[in-house]
Structures are given as C-alpha cells and as structure tokens.
Amino acid sequence: MTENSSASAVTTNACKQCAPLGATVAFKGIEGAMPFIHGGQGCATYIRRYLISHFKEPVDVASSSFSDDTAIFGGESNLRVGLDNVARKYAPSLIGVSTTCLAETIGENLPAIMRRHLESKQGAAFPLLAPVSTPSYRGTHVDGFNAVVRAVIEQRASASDRCGGVNVLPGFVSCADLRHLKEIIGSFDIPYTLLPDYSDTLDAPTQSDYVPLADGGTTLAEIAAMAGRDATIQMSRTLAPEASGGSWLAENRGVPLHTLGLPIGIRETDRLVDLLSGLTGRDATKWLIGERGRLIDAYIDGHKYVFEKKVAIYGEEDLVAGLTSLVAEIGMTPVLCASGGASGKLAAAIRSVAPNCTPVVREGADFKAITDELRALKPDLMIGNSKGYKTARELGVPLVRAGFPIHDRIGGSRLLHLGYRGAQRLFDEIVNTLIARTQDESPVGYSYM
Ligand code: SF4
C-alpha cells in the first residue's frame, strides 16, 4: 500500500465540503432544530444550494449575515438579532449555531454570546441554543458533522437514570441508510437513540403547504437518554477520540463504546449484526439472514464480471473504507482510495478492511491529485460522488455514484449503502455498470449473457 499525502500549496476542485455544511446536516437530524450559520450570507447560500441540490428538499438555513463592519467589530449584535428573528419565525426547540471561517478568524466567542443573549431574556422562554465551532480551514463537512454530534451530546446527554438500549452514531450517511439502520436495529427489539436522524427532515413526503421545520429527527428526550444507555455503537474507523461523541459518553457518563466501520458489504455488516446480537442476547432475525443469503447468491452470480477489475474510490474517509471493504470482498482490485479528509487514519482503516489489497491511499486529496493518480493507475471503474464526474469523463471511466454530494442525478438521499441490502444495491450497480461498458464497446453488440 502506498500512502501519498504530498502537500500542495493550493487545492484544485476539493474532494470535501465545508465544515458548517456538515454541521447543518447534523442539526437537521434533531427534532425541531433550526440550523444557523454565524458568518456571511455567501456561506449560508452555498450550503443551502448544495443541500437542496442533493436532497431535493427545501433547506432553510439562517445566517447572521456578516458585513464589512461585522468582520471588523464582531458579529454579536447581528447574531442576537438573528436568533430573535429565528425564534419568532420558526419557533424551534433548538437553534444550532455553527461558525464560518470568518467568524473563527476574528475570534468570535459563541458560548459567551449565547450566554449573554439568554441572560438578556431574564427567564423568558427561548429556544435552546447549541453553539458549535466549525472552522472550515482545518476541517471538512465530516468534521463539522461530528462536531455537532459531540457538542449536542456534551450539552444535552444528561439523563441520570439507566434506561438501557444503545446509542447509534452512524456518521454522515444517506437518508436511506438511516432508515435501513433503524430497520436493522429495530429487528433486535432494543430501545435506541440514533443521532442524528435526518431521514425524514431531509427526505420528507410531499406536502401541500410549506412547512418551515419538517417533522422528524432525534428528539431532545432521546438525546438526554443517551447518558443512560448500556452501550454506544459508533460507525467510524477514522474519528479521533477527542472529536467523538461516543468517547465523551464513555469518559463522562460511563457508557461503553463499541467502534465499527460503516457496515458496507457482508463482512462489515456482519460485525454490526454480531455486536447487536451480543448486546441484546438475540439472534439475527430470519429477515436479516434472508437478506444476507440473497446477497451471497448475487455475489456468486456476478463474481465473474467484477473479478480483478481495477477500481478507484473517493469521498468521505469512512465511506471510502467501507466501499473498499465491499470491493475487496467481491474480488475487485482497489487501486486508489482517496479522500479530502485528513484524519491520518485512512490507511490503517483500509488495511483493516482489505488486508490483502495494496491501493494508493491519499488523504487530503483534491480532484487534481486524484485525476493525476488515475491517469497512471487506469481504473476500470470509479466509485464516489458527483464531484468526480469531470475526472471520470475526462478519463473515459464509468462512475458509480455513492455518498455526497449527488448533484447530477436524482435520488441522492435514497442511495442505500449500508447493510446487506445496501451492499446488494451497490453490487448490482457495479456489475451492471461494468457490463454496460463491455456491451457499449463490443463491435457486434449482444443482448443476452
Ligand atoms: S468561507 Fe469557510 S465557511 Fe464559508 S463557505 Fe467557504 S469554507 Fe465554508
């Protein structure tokens, strides 16, 4: 395995999004929460634009709307006016405030501003405030997302009674993934807190009227109960303990932490199922065993089409590790595993899930670096988000879309990656994409295999 993280002075077509974008998604997974960006309108507009394009849902994001003055003298007055406006217009249960690069650069002290604002209310009812520091110049959307999870747990996981069950911290996954995780955990008949849960708020049924705050999300009571659960399952091989909500619960509330990778493919999903089985004392249900059996059957049917095909994978670090586990177990050859994230843990994660593979692993990569690598590696397939389309087109390599953002197809929020069913969907799409390429390039064409 080659680890390549040579630094460049500039980023060209970043393979990551900004930290408050991830924070906004995480806040959308809390019931009644309104995301608020402390910084310029441009940051909030970019975030709204990106999220609406992927989720195809209205996504309201408030902003303290920095101007030239605020950039010099500070944004406290703008922020406090904004908080009052949001409280009046949306009546949220919680306002989740994340910082932009500019707010961080001028040293805004969010907790102090929040404290002063609540004190000014002199006991009058006001939404809960959740300040989170999300400087994008030293983090990605995944870091912003995880910062919210940790901050909300620190601020709100306060139950003093043991209530049993598990906390599940899935990380930045799709709405379909969240829904399927709830099916899997529910099949073990155990109480749980899934944090965050934006499966309804960012993938809502159509409504005849505009709804400012969509129904759904993890409730504040469920978050409070996290302190009294029997265990936390955290799905990340790359998250540092100091950034982890699960580690905080272990250290401060005595809730044992179990760390897994994202359950993508059979082996990683088996680890989740075995853990749930161990925690509950229950066997996997017939339904889950059936899903696994059908997946193995599909692997047998399609193996000859994927065996030793070279594949490049890019995107969020944990998604890349999970997809690498999947492609390795179906006999493909991962040649490049790349992410804009820079946890320092991606290579170890790849080694854990695919010990017999030797891909080039690139952390902190941009699409210029990825494209340069792929010119030499000549993959048969790329797997990743829509931002890799230009590379795929330039190199003439078919692209299977996965992760975030999906801007050039519909259904980004419905892409299922997790569990046996997610592996089934990915496997079918990988196989069919390779078959389609062979078919298109065939001089005679064929319609029967
Ligand atoms: S300035 Fe920073 S916070 Fe704003 S959009 Fe750009 S990266 Fe994100």
Architecture overview:
The chain has helices spanning about 20-30, 40-55, 70-75, 75-90, 100-105, 110-120, 140-155, 175-185, 220-225, 245-255, 265-280, 285-305, 315-330, 345-355, 365-375, 390-395, 420-440; strands at about 1-5, 35-40, 60-65, 95-100, 130, 165-170, 190-195, 230-235, 255-260, 310-315, 335-340, 360, 380-385, 400. With about 450 residues, it is α/β, with parallel strands linked by helices. The chain has three domains: about 20-155, Nitrogenase molybdenum iron protein domain (Rossmann fold); about 165-260, Rossmann fold, CATH 3.40.50; about 285-440, Nitrogenase molybdenum iron protein domain (Rossmann fold, 3-Layer(aba) Sandwich). A six-stranded parallel β-sheet has the order 1-12-11-10-13-14, with helices on both faces. α1 (about 20-30) crosses α7, α11 (about 265-280) packs across α13 and α12 runs parallel beside α17. The two termini are about 35 Å apart. Bound molecules: iron/sulfur cluster.
